[in-house]
Records
---
Amino acid sequence: MATIVTKVKRKDRKAERKRGQGDAPAPDAPIEPAQPEAPELDIAPDDPLLAHLQSAAGPVDIDKLTFDSPALEQMRAQGLRLIVPLVTQGELIGLLNLGPRLSEQEYSSDDRKLLENLAAQAAPAVRVAQLVREQQAEARERERIEHELQVAQLIQQNFLPKSTPSIAGWEVAAYYRPARTVGGDFYDFIEFPDGRLGIVIGDVTDKGVPAALVMAATRSVVRTTASANPSPGAVLARVNDILVPDMPRNMFVTCLYGLLDPKVGSFRFANAGHDLPYVRRPDGRVDEFRATGMPLGLLEGMEYEEAEGTLGSGDTVLFSSDGLVEAHDPHGEMFGFPRLRERMSTHRGGANLLDRILGDLAAFTGADWEQEDDVTIVTLACSADLPAPKPPTPTPAAADAPAPRSSKEQAVVPAEQPTSRQIVRFSLPSEPGGERAASERVAEMVEGSWLTADQAERLKTAVAEASMNAMEHGNEYRGDLPVDVEVSIWPDRLVVRITDLGTGQEADQEEPDLEAKLEGRQTPRGWGMFLIRHMVDEMNVTTEEGQHTVELVLRRKEDDR
Amino acid sequence: MNLQALSARVRTKNGVAVVELAGDVDGSAESALRAGYQEAAATGTSTVLLDFGAVGYINSTGIALIVGVLAEARRDKTKVLACGLSGHYREIFQVTRLSDFMPIYADEHEALAGA
């Protein structure tokens, strides 16, 4: 008696491509694994033979089957006579396929009884063997995934700096702990040949492998872009444009990128929606380094505000990802920004601040904390004795102007770097009174720069007048039309550019003559451009491609340097 | 930033009508400024003192309104003085030549002594 065992795979995910498979030797051949396999038998999942065998009681005579079945035809062609279904727990798991008896006699009822008993006992055993093999395969698969995760972790660790930069007078410390094997947080240090240090901290939405892949891409793009571009705002704008087309749906990256000039303590930075860095001052005060911008990867063509802060001896900056402030204690309370500020203020600054904040976090979350999100913290502590920033020279006319908040907050503008500047851009809707907002925002931005209080007042008036012209005449107070304001602070001059869409008529350019106005020969109005011209050192008006721009320039006086 | 509607309170001292202005002298100030001047003129005085001590913001539209007041005062043959201007707005009154038609004093005391 020759048999061919046909396995019928279980109807699970992997067996969608179900097919019969002969794995016993051909009839009359000794049963040895090295022998060529019996002809393969494909049984389609929808073949009526399967349903028939599933419910058959005992061996089935192939010749007695009359329905139309491709598998059956194949079996007949192979000379099979008898099929014994292997059924266990109601499930067809295999077939014993028999050819003609070697004695050429028909299968007797005893034969059939024997085969039925055999099938009844073999079926559970075969099933057990199948389960064992499946489990082994699953275990191998799990092992493979775990191994791949470990490789991913190694690769990701390679993307993070292996050490922190060593710069005389500065101490940099970093901590990174993903919530899973791999995470979406990242930080990076980019050392430039001129001694400046780029500091990057970022956070990809989501966790695990998808976040890690986006993190790796972002980190590389930031690194490449930063090395070719000196402006943090421009770097983030470029990185954003590169990332947008390939960013998976519902994912984005928050990122802060800043450039430290360790020689003078200036920190120029731009921010794509990342948590603001905190600066602990030597007196325990905690300041923010504030700049705004959209997270990376959401919308093309974003612009990033660029700001500059000043660091001196005893200052410590703490950069972190939201995994720190959004950590919860066992009662569900969040760590939060106020606590972070308070803890930073309480501790002494310096390189130890990182460890102390980690200690605070551990004490807050408790020992059984199941880390919710990746936690990344970078600290930058200054112990260098830097030249004190030069305060603006007060003038008698400026006696009633507010004093600078502190010398620490004045932007350092080193004279030996004439190209260094700080640029901030913003837009405002065109509505009556909107010029006040423009004027106040510009005033805030130049606070702490080299502008004298007197110049700041003149600038406020000039910006208000130019913005009012832009909103009222250029954009005809249409709320949907923006007025764009760009402020650049250079070591020797300040430039404000106010741009409208130039749809309306610009203000009257006639030189106002007060005498004529008082006598009614001129309208009382028409002072706007006149005022602007008298408030600034230079005014340039350009119109191109439907944009009307008024450029205001204030120069730094020689004796103020 | 605080947008503050202009208010004008009128009182007389030493025969001078003092208009105490408080708030912003911009486009929104027209009726308050005009009413303040007219109330001051109605006292029958020959001299009106505009006190800008509580004014935080003056723009080009506000300058035009002040020109309007000066023109009205010229018809009324009323003298107009100003006081309480910050250094910055004093400069603006000078470049626009408002100060040529409206003597500027540091405060009310100095203005009344000068008048």
Note: The CA atoms of residues 309 and 324 of chain A lie 23 Å apart.
---
Amino acid sequence: MKLLVVEDDRTVGQYVKRGLAEAGFHVDLVGDGAEGLRVASEGHYDVVVLDLRLPGLDGREVLRTLRDRGNTVPVLVLTAQDTVDFKVQALRMGADDYVTKPFALEELLARVEALGRRPKAITPPVLKVADLVLDTGAREVRRGNKAIELTPKEYAVLEYLMRHPGRVMPRTLITEYAWDYHFDPGTNIVDVVITRLRKKIDHGREPKLIHTVRGVGYVVKG
Amino acid sequence: MDTIQARLTTWFATAVAIILAGFTVAVYMSRRSALYQELDRRIESEADLTAGILAGVARAGGIVARNDAGGHPVLAQELGATLEAVPDFLVIMPAKDSVPLFASTESIALTYEKFQQLRQVIVAARGQRQEGTLTLTPDGPRLRYIVRPLGPEVSQGGAVLVAVRPERVELGLEQTLSTFLLILPFGVLAAYVIGSWIARRALAPVDQITNEVREITDGKSLHRRLPTAMVKDELGRLADTLNQMMDRLERSFSALRRFTADASHELKTPLTVLRAGVERAITTPRMPQESLASLEEALQEINRMTELVDTLLTLARADEGTAPLHCEPVDLRRLVEETRETGDLLAEDAGVTMKVEAPVEPVIVAVDASRIRQLVLNLLTNAVKYTPSGGRVTLWLERDDGRVKLGVSDTGIGIAPGDLPHVFDRFWRADTARTRTSERPGVGLGLAICKWIAEAHGGSIEVQSRPGRGTTFTVTLPATSAHPVVTKASS
């Protein structure tokens, strides 16, 4: 899949480019609006990642001009303005989605993938770690043969950990995933959820699947 | 009435009343003195005339007086008849006798006692010219009189007294006064009406300017200006000054708007870069655990920073009146249910029990759901933070007479009465009791944001607290916010 990133800040641009490239995309990076508009109009991209604030030709102008020319390439907008209002405006101008700075790379990837209409198979609907199974379609969790009832937040935390089996997930990222806005990070709320999950999943069973990495976060591995 | 118009009218009417009263007094005084002078002139000329006649007769060798049966001199009959024509009091006294030479009819009509008083005046003058006012006792009349000495040729230098009652003069003066007193209230009334009209006319443009300025500065039409008159009178200059002020206001507002947009960009781009680096490092395989812990801390700080920037920008835009809300019908009961689990988790972490009290039926209100959720979670976090383990936190929702009340009550440490007025202030924190040492304190914007959210929805937030007993935050929202506050976006 071929992507165009229009971002004037070089560090952010490089980071986005590298992150997307590592996920297997072909990425072109452009640093200003006029150039971005030219490249986007000529090249055949699957998704354009567009920063709204650009020197010279503004991101909004780029977007409007693209749409005026009948170009329907999916556009993902990067914005620093974290207001619903602004996002609505961006969508009205013809953007397909937006990500607010500072964003998690994972979120950007997920949205780019969604816009690029990749086959859903890339994220398997059923996650497995040892004998723990999480069916994202049916929102069901079982360990061995036993179905496990989870509350919404417990489910979200477990799903996030199981999407990255064997990888240590920092508390902050878990909080962000399970609570859709920047929830007060001063609380130990993730630890409480993990304690509950342990009771439901690991209690009285071997091997233990949920592991603590002190000072960092948690990892699910078999 | 506390308006300049009323004050001007009152001042004007008072001034007219004072002027009219002063005028009345002046007219009365001058009229009075003129009339008395005239009176004095009259009696003086009568006295002179009498003296003249008597002297003339004496010089011509005629008989002025002859002795009566008792040996007292009496004025000759012909002269007496002439002097009878004088309508006032007229008494002639000889120098060497106590019986008057002549007394006019009117004088004779007086009682003996009163007549003696007249005679006494002549005697007291001792041959000198004298004039004045005297009141005969008992009970009048008051008289204006003159005593004039006669020449030596008439009864060895006697004297003549002429006196008159000034009643007619007084009557005329009274009439003048009553005429003026009658005019005065009408004059004041007319002054009041005219003054009020003038003041209204003069001040009408001020009212108009006030209304227009109010319309312009409501936050949405700051580009408008007052119409400027061609004539540069006081009001024209006022309008110009106000227009200049609004120019500056508009400039500073747009500067703030630019600043908030710039600030979000300038602050968040480096945060994005930071976050990118940290996230990348965290996902690097085989990263030592100590490094991971530092990175997690860094990530946490970045998030905290992001949150702070967002909050500050939201408050800045709220001050400016452009922080947007997106209201749509939301079932608050469901929203409360959604936050229940988070509340439970927070409570469990702090060893506190959490309870939810909500009505059975849906409570549908047009609100910005994400803002209200933020409000509820802020209040819950706060309540749990300040409730010692074993305590209870209650999240409640109720309908109340056209309004919806949403609140969080706790059995926590409470807030000192002196601190209550400040809890919604930005960056405010009680110095001691409310900050647990083990916990990193927040930045003190949570409740400020809550207040903004409640007020932006057309509602309010209140706090009640008793130290040691607990605290209740109550948010009141209008239940029928068919027209919620949706402010214009600026980007």
Note: Residues 10-22 of chain A form the longest helix (13 residues).
